[in-house]
Design a protein that fits this description.
Helices cover 57% and strands 11% of the residues. The chain is mainly alpha-helical and 91 residues long. It has two domains: 38 residues, no CATH class; 50 residues, no CATH class. Keywords: Membrane, Transmembrane, Transmembrane helix.
Length: 91
């Protein structure tokens, strides 16, 4: 059971004991053990923060690759021909 840990003792030396109440306590200091999901929540927050920094970089990277495959000049030409066609249909 590695789901619980003692916040006061060194993780290398701490061991778990089950108290008479049925709850897990630290074998060294006797304090109640804390569930690890609190750390996982922090890890998720850290992951979100890291991804919020990385996503714009990934997005710009994809945008640069797209521009290299389809240069913006071609798009401009396509738009200009479309405008000409619209002008012709109007007049
Ligand atoms: Zn302890």
């Amino acid at each position: 059971m590695d789901k619980y840990y003692c916040p006061y003792c060194n993780p290398k030396y701490q061991f778990q004991k089950q108290s008479s109440k049925g709850t897990y306590i630290c074998g060294l200091c006797g304090e109640d053990l804390i569930k690890k999901p609190f750390i996982r929540l922090n890890q998720i927050i850290a992951l979100v923060a890291a991804s919020s920094l990385l996503l714009p970089l990934i997005y710009t990277f994809i945008f640069l690759i797209k521009n290299q495959i389809n240069p913006p000049n071609k798009n401009y030409q396509a738009n200009s021909t479309l405008i000409i066609n619209i002008k012709e249909t109007i007049s």
